[in-house]
Amino acid sequence: MLKIFFSVNHSGCAWWRSRQPAEMIKKLGLAQVEIFSQYDTARNDVGRMLAECDLIVAQSPCGVTSVALTREYQEMGKVVIIDYDDLVYSCSPFNPAYRTLGIRNVNVKDVDGNDHTLWKDGEKGFSIKDNYGRYRSQEDLFKLADGVTVTTEYLKDRFIEENPILKDKITVIPNSINFNLFYPFPKRKNDRIRIGWTASSSHLNEVWMVRDIFRKLFEKYGNKIVFVQMGDIQELNGVFTPEQFEYHRFIDITVYPLKFASLNLDIGICPLVDDEFNRCKSALKWSEYASMKVPAVCSDLPSYNCVEDGKTGFLAKDVDEFVDKISRLVDDEVLRREIAENAYQKNFADFNLEKNVVNMVKFYEDTYNRVGEYR
């Protein structure tokens, strides 16, 4: 049985892409699994895990140190798989991650046409030299890695386009739901239709789209609806009245499913600005809503090409179309239930962690067998 070592941190991304899959692999007995965290694993334990494992999985590695560690692991006879869930060096300047990933200075204009510096080399921890080194190191990692996993076909194609060497060693392992953790609470009758948006600070680019959507919805429905936001974006606080707007901060990821279920949403939204970074995202937000049997309206981008418009969700190209399709759900309780049930069944079939880790382990085993011929 393959012995797999997962190197993780405490980010939400690592929870979805490494911690949850690792725990499921252990539960199903598909492989022997060890999980290393730089925060809470003792040095002696790390040494033991490294010595005993056959294959190492690293989530979103970057930088010269990651290149050096990959070479070191391979010299120890280990097979190395690296995983990415974003087109890393194409993120928006409004994404806080641009600080460590951006490779250009950025100036923006305000509504009055005045220039403002958003990112300037050497200021506020932004270093183009350091970031460019990380960018080039990713190319080195792609060359070195024995296998690469990504979240979507679109992201896979983009990585191959930029790095043809990946063609024969990259595969898609979709973001998947652990239905033992994500499940709907018994529905409580709401006085108003609760429309939710969950978003981290990486979605700052979408704030003004969301603002415009809800301004139009409140003009149309007044107090029939309430906007429920969960996340660490606070730019919309104060835009709407306390009666219109309900804000929840993110909590520890281990209890996030329970918090998400407790929001008791009627409708969810998944808006994305159309740029290449967002086109490479997965449909995870739609899957989260679906796991709670909440119907969703999503941006009509490749990220959500798994959503069948009008059956498992709705797709919208702009603010007006979001308002129109959200309105259809607001006005029709039966439609809400039908879309929600269809979305749930689609995700249970195609984005179910218990099923998809089988394919994950199969890729690990195939990579190990291929590489083992010469290592």
Assembly level: single chain
Q: What Rg, in angstroms, do the CA atoms define?
A: 22 Å
Structural class: alpha/beta
Beta-strand percentage range: 15-25%
Q: What is the number of independent domains?
A: 2
Helix content: 40-55%
Average pLDDT level: 92
CATH class of the largest domain: Alpha Beta
Looking across the biggest beta sheet, what order are the strands in?
2-1-3-4-7-8
Number of helices: 13
Write the element-wise H/E pattern from the N-terminal end onward. Answer: EHEHEHEHEEHEHEEHEEHEHHEEHHH
* Tally of strands: 14
- State the CATH topology of the largest domain: Rossmann fold
What is the topological layout?
Elements: E1 3-8, H1 12-28, E2 32-37, H2 43-52, E3 55-59, H3 64-75, E4 79-84, H4 98-101, E5 106-109, E6 115-119, H5 128-144, E7 147-150, H6 153-162, E8 170-172, E9 193-199, H7 207-221, E10 225-231, E11 245-248, H8 256-262, E12 267-270, H9 276-279, H10 284-291, E13 296-299, E14 314-316, H11 319-331, H12 333-350, H13 353-371
Parallel strand pairs: 1-2, 1-3, 3-4, 4-7, 7-8, 9-10, 9-12, 10-11, 12-13, 13-14
Antiparallel strand pairs: 5-6
Helix pairs in contact: 1-13, 3-5, 7-11, 10-12
Notes on the protein architecture:
With about 375 residues, the chain is an alpha/beta fold. Helices cover about 40% and strands about 20% of the residues. It has 13 helices and 14 strands. The chain has helices spanning about 10-30, 45-50, 65-75, 100, 130-145, 155-160, 205-220, 255-260, 275-280, 285-290, 320-330, 335-350, 355-370; strands at about 5-10, 30-35, 55-60, 80-85, 105-110, 115-120, 145-150, 170, 195-200, 225-230, 245-250, 265-270, 295-300, 315. Helix 1 (about 10-30) packs across helix 13 and helix 7 (about 205-220) crosses helix 11. The chain starts with a strand and ends with a helix.
